[in-house]
Design brief:
The protein is of the alpha+beta class and 348 residues long. The protein has helices at 17-32, 72-88, 131-148, 159-174, 177-187, 193-206, 256-270, 276-291, 300-321, 331-342, and strands at residues 5-9, 36-39, 43-44, 48-55, 60-66, 102-106, 109-117, 190-191, 213-215, 224-228, 236-237, 240-245, 252-254, 346-347. The protein has 10 helices and 14 strands. Helix 3 crosses helix 8, helix 7 (256-270) runs antiparallel to helix 8 (276-291) and helix 7 (256-270) crosses helix 9.
Length: 348
């Protein structure tokens, strides 16, 4: 493994993280030996900050400053391995331009940095997703799974271990007397703890199935880029192309149904102008199963339970990170709540 390059940059504590990166970007490019003609404005993501750069030899590249958190270097390595493997299979994923990892040391901490190919296209709001977007999304996930079935990575984390820990945290939270009281008083809702036990048992059963493989586990709106299709685009359908699949930082080993359910849970909440049966039909049946390269044998009841699990986890995150008094103003919260109510997971 390549040793990281280190850059030392000390600035006033009055600087924000973005300001530090703005000062550091030229030093980063210098450390990598990259000549440039223009540095574009940064693009922010959940875990990182991206700076598009036009190089002197006419390329567009992506300099990524990763979020400071424990284990980020190992996560980056795994993500890069999966992303580069898929790129080698022709999928629209990014590749490292330089295998060396850079570390920026400043008065505000240590930041890991990578430099990658730049993927064109743009994200769009889920509510703007058409039938074609949903079919292409499902087809592309299926094609991605078919290729990842041949990838073996040592020490890949288990998606089941991760979600068993998440379920344990949710069980502890939702059984606190203070939480139960506040949910009843302020939100007028309660949640079935028995459901959490059922999800835990289901994960144990899924772990015993064949067809365990590397998954993306974050195949959601902010990580999918679209553009008008061209003849050379691999991931395309009906004039539309997926030009970028981003952020493999949550990649883990598990059954493909986990990936399908995670994305479907987001779609059911965010595609607010389409009924749930149409969203599932376009994404899963017309996209993943009919047009994709991987054969899907997931049982409907298993998929439904997994979608519930992910919706409960999203519901839990809303409660953990927002004042209860303002949750009814959050459309994503209310849609998640209402779906779970219809499925008898929560009650009024």
């Amino acid at each position: 493994m390549d040793m990281p390059i280190c850059i030392y940059l000390f600035r006033s504590s009055l600087y924000t993280v973005s300001m530090v990166y703005q000062v550091a970007i030229k030093e980063v490019l210098k450390a990598y030996g990259i000549s440039y003609v223009r540095i574009h404005d940064s693009q922010k993501g959940y875990r990182n900050e991206i700076w598009p750069v036009e190089t002197a030899d006419g390329r567009m590249i992506n300099v990524t400053f990763y979020k400071r958190e424990d284990g980020i270097v190992e996560r980056m390595r795994r993500a890069d391995t999966v992303s580069e493997y898929l790129a080698g299979c022709g999928m629209p994923t990014r590749q490292r331009i330089d295998s060396r990892m850079l570390q920026l040391k400043s008065s505000s901490g240590i930041t890991s940095i990578g430099v990658y190919t730049y993927l064109p296209g743009a994200t769009i709001p889920w509510e703007a997703y058409t039938m074609t977007h949903l079919k292409l999304l499902g087809k592309t996930m299926s094609d991605m799974h078919a290729r990842l079935d041949g990838l073996v990575i040592d020490a890949m984390p288990s998606v089941y271990d991760e979600y068993q820990m998440i379920i344990a945290r949710m069980q502890e939270y939702f059984t606190r007397p203070s939480v139960i009281g506040s949910m009843n008083l302020k939100l007028h809702v309660g949640i079935s703890i028995d459901k959490l036990n059922e999800y835990s048992q289901l994960l144990g059963q899924l772990q015993l199935l064949p067809d365990q493989q590397v998954l993306h586990m974050d195949f959601v709106r902010g990580n999918i880029l679209f553009k008008e299709a061209m003849s050379q685009d691999m991931a395309q359908f009906d004039g539309l192309a997926i030009s970028g699949i981003l952020d493999f930082e949550k990649t883990a080993l598990g059954h493909p149904s986990m990936d399908i359910a995670r994305t479907l849970a987001f779609l059911l909440v965010d595609c607010k102008y389409k009924p749930a049966d149409k969203v599932q039909k376009y994404f899963l049946h017309s996209g993943y199963q009919k047009r994709g390269q991987r054969i899907d044998s997931t049982q409907p009841d298993v998929l439904g339970a997994l979608v519930e699990l992910f919706l409960v986890y999203d519901f839990y995150k809303f409660l953990r990170h927002n004042p209860y008094e303002f949750l009814d103003l959050n459309a994503h919260y209310t849609r998640t709540r209402d779906i779970l109510k219809r499925q008898n997971v929560i009650r009024y």
